[in-house]
From TrEMBL:
Major facilitator superfamily (MFS) profile domain span: 21-421
GO cellular component, as recorded: membrane
Membrane-topology descriptor: Multi-pass membrane protein
Protein name per Swiss-Prot or TrEMBL: Nitrate/nitrite transporter
Membrane-crossing segments per the record: 21-46, 58-75, 87-104, 110-130, 151-174, 180-200, 240-266, 278-297, 309-328, 334-359, 366-387, 399-420
Length: 441
């Protein structure tokens, strides 16, 4: 029920179900993204180990994000049906298997298949956003979604920065290069299993409890379609597909950058593996605050000017991302490239946060379907970027084209508008939640 949702975020409290979900969702997301991108900064070593061609590298990058499209569309409706606690625990447990298997890959095809399987872990984002959306009230849900996503997303940046250090530490112990990168991949696999146990032990599906228990008393279960009914209803809403495209433009570019940033700095600016990882890691670590900033701005603007301003803000952020990406693609020096990457990365992460600050308001009765479809859009964007790189044949040229595409996609955000009745209903829900006071303490 709406009045049971938290109306404020108390960061240093774990006493309430919403705040336990808040902290465990971002931590689970962090671990999942760390595992998803753990091998990205090691690609220069892996390329040599398997004698990979540029086309094979592009195929691996595409595989890393392609399967996530399907899994993201699946887990949203599954959360409606079975609850985020069960789906998240299952995803992390199963996702650990291809991570461990990657450490034992001995040829290109096996590596490609493992990378494909690991891509399923990227669906963790949808579950994170679903879980915080059902735990927090309209006045803070944008901030809650963006903060948990941002802190979790930082797992990708942490992987870029820390995995090369882990690799170097294993080398220091006397292990040869061929085995050191394999040893480094065992760490994220173990972390996934540990996080799965924590999530199962300390979270619940919604403020009232677990869906399985609540369904014994239908009056206590929040009214929401389940399974494919949620997915079908979301498919019929044009706003979902506009946000699908905007998320392709922001998160899609983010994922693409995580996969190519380290090798880009090695190839274009002669960085060492460690320095390239640190440079690439700064892009991901921006998510620690930038995503939250995008969601917070969306909440504050909506409180003053109404629901439609959330879409207008998203449009401006995507324009800033596109212009920054164009600048990055044309940077000729390493310092200028890093500066440009930080600028366009700031807009990219803020746009991601602003997108999911809008998602909970599109269709409350099909939240899982909406979250899943929009989330899949991000991976469609990353796959499209991968195919664009194969077509262009050059990373710098690919980034130039991406900048132009991103800037044009901002028009999709402007197309997201709501009826007067929809806006009135949302305003009433917000007022009711504030009057009730929420659960977070």
């Amino acid at each position: 029920m709406l009045e049971d949702k938290a109306t404020r975020i108390t960061l240093f409290s774990l006493r309430s179900a919403p705040m336990r979900a808040f902290h465990l969702t971002w931590l689970a997301f962090f671990v999942c993204f760390f595992a998803w991108f753990a091998c990205a900064p090691l690609m220069p070593v892996i390329v040599q180990a398997f004698s990979l061609t540029p086309e094979q590298v592009a195929n691996i990058n595409i595989a890393a994000v392609a399967v996530t499209i399907l899994v993201r569309m699946l887990v949203g409706p599954l959360c409606d049906r079975y609850g985020p606690r069960r789906i998240y625990t299952g995803l992390m447990t199963l996702g650990a298997l291809p991570v461990f298997a990657l450490a034992f890959a001995d040829d290109y095809l096996t590596f490609l298949l493992c990378r494909l399987g690991i891509g399923a872990i990227g669906a963790s984002f949808v579950i994170t956003q679903y879980h915080t959306s059902v735990m927090f009230a309209p006045n803070v849900v944008g901030t809650a979604n963006a903060t948990t996503a941002g802190w979790g997303n930082a797992g990708a940046g942490a992987a870029q920065a820390l995995v090369p250090l882990l690799f170097s530490a294993i080398l220091f112990l006397g292990v040869d290069t061929a085995q050191a990168w394999r040893g480094a991949m065992l760490v994220p696999g173990a972390a996934l299993l540990a996080m799965a146990w924590l999530y199962w032990r300390y979270t619940q599906d919604c403020p009232q409890g677990d869906y399985a228990t609540l369904r014994r008393d239908a009056a206590r279960l929040p009214p929401r379609k389940g399974g494919w009914a949620s997915f079908r209803q979301a498919c019929g809403n044009y706003r979902v597909w506009m946000l699908f495209l905007t998320y392709a433009a922001c998160f899609g570019v983010e994922v693409f950058m995580h996969n190519i940033a380290a090798i880009y700095y090695v190839m274009h600016f002669d960085f060492s593996l460690r320095d390239a990882g640190l440079a690439a890691g700064t892009f991901g670590l921006l998510a620690l605050f930038a995503r939250a900033l995008g969601g917070w701005l969306s909440d504050k603007a909506a409180a003053r000017w109404g629901l439609d301003v959330r879409a207008s803000l998203l449009c401006l952020l995507i324009i800033g991302e596109g212009l920054g990406l164009l600048w990055f693609s044309q940077a000729s020096g390493a310092v200028m490239a890093i500066l440009a990457m930080l600028v366009f990365g700031l807009f990219t992460h803020m746009a991601c946060g602003a997108t999911y600050a809008l998602v909970p308001f599109v269709d409350r009765k099909a939240l899982g379907g909406v979250a899943g479809i929009v989330g899949a859009g991000g991976n469609v964007g990353a796959v499209a970027a991968g195919f664009l790189m194969k077509e262009v044949g050059d990373m710098q040229g690919t980034l130039l084209w991406l900048g132009a595409f991103v800037a044009v996609s901002s028009l999709c955000a402007l197309a997201v508008r709501f009826s007067a009745e929809h806006k009135a209903n949302e305003a009433a829900l917000r007022d009711r939640a504030l009057a009730a006071g929420g659960l977070a303490r």
